[in-house]
Specification:
Family: Belongs to the Nudix hydrolase family. NudC subfamily.
CATH architecture of the largest domain: Alpha-Beta Complex
Number of domains: 2
Number of helices: 5
CATH class of the largest domain: Alpha Beta
Helix content: 10-25%
Number of strands: 16
Order of helices and strands: EEEEHEEEHHEEEEEEHEEEH
Radius of gyration: 21 Å
Distance between the termini: 12 Å
Structural class: alpha+beta
Binding site for a divalent metal cation 3: 194, 198, 239
GO molecular function, one term: hydrolase activity
Keywords: Hydrolase, Magnesium, Manganese, Metal-binding, NAD, Zinc
Binding site for substrate: 88, 144, 212-219, 261
């Protein structure tokens, strides 16, 4: 069953009297630990957080019911039955439809929070009722939700793959190389530059594989496979603390399932070793 039968991102009208809602603050969502709910009655949620709502955005439909995002101004919770939960939790649980909804909500909430004031004149910005846009009425500046284009690449050398770890990773975990595109470069140029900057390696035979929207906080990941061409690994210590060639039969702890990094690795293993073809959740 397609996740669109559970969630679709068409914008419901903001002036509807009821519906469903999620409450968001800095990539966390209000979660009822007694019922395990993260989607609530809109009326109930607006009552609970009445004086704490920075912005409200219509984000789509869940089982054909309109859903709204309430962006909160701080992390204080009104009751011990509530806590904060992240999109990563539901990604690890394999709840694809909910991940799509919450990932979208988190990106919209981050954008709404970070664009409350005009970057040109400093006045308060308003949300458009017609479409997803915030605007400054005095000077005409408009802001739309942003996506940061990133490359992510699995580099192989025979039966070895290049994996690296950043200081923020959990102990023992290694992943594929990734980085943000810069103004004026193509995403392919970004792949070559980032691999060279982070490991001093040259690559070739670059092949686009797939993409994934990554709501941490607002990236669009373009996934590639490349083959090693030349060079010796010299980690860029400002970015990564270690990079190694790993034999495909002896791999370290890998990124979480559902991520494009894990998919690129598992797809390569499938192509080299057979078995079950991996699926990237969409």
């Amino acid at each position: 069953m397609s996740h669109y039968q559970h969630w679709r991102s068409a914008m419901p009208p903001l002036d509807l009297p009821d519906g469903l809602a999620v409450a968001h603050y800095k990539q966390g969502f209000v979660h009822d630990r007694t019922t395990q709910a993260v989607i609530f009655s809109r009326t109930e949620l607006k009552h609970i957080f009445a004086d704490r709502i920075l912005d409200e955005q219509a984000i789509g439909y869940w089982h054909d019911k309109p859903v709204y995002l309430l962006e909160l101004d701080n992390e204080e919770l009104p009751d011990s039955k509530f806590d904060w939960i992240t999109v990563r939790h539901f990604m690890l649980q394999g709840e694809t439809a909910l991940v799509k909804l919450l990932g979208f909500a988190s990106q919209v909430g981050t954008w709404a929070r970070e664009h409350r004031y005009c970057g040109s004149c400093g006045r308060s910005m308003q949300s458009s009722l017609a479409h997803r846009m915030r605007y400054c009425k005095p000077c005409g500046v408009q802001s739309y939700p942003r996506l940061a284009p990133c490359m992510i690449v699995l580099v192989s050398r025979g039966d070895e793959i290049l994996l690296a770890r950043a200081p923020r990773f959990v102990p023992g975990m290694y992943s594929t190389l990734a980085g943000f595109a810069e103004p004026g470069e193509t995403i392919e140029e970004c792949v070559h530059r980032e691999v060279m900057e982070e490991t001093s390696l040259k690559i070739h035979q670059l092949k686009y594989i797939t993409s994934q929207n990554w709501p941490f906080p607002h990236s669009m990941m373009f996934g590639f496979h490349a083959e090693y061409l030349s060079g010796e690994i010299v980690p860029e210590l400002d970015e990564i603390e270690d990079a190694q060639w790993f034999n495909i039969h002896q791999l370290p702890q890998l990124p979480m399932s559902g991520s494009i990094a894990r998919y690129l690795i598992e797809l390569h293993l499938y192509q080299r070793l057979g078995g079950s073809e991996p699926v990237l959740p969409n």
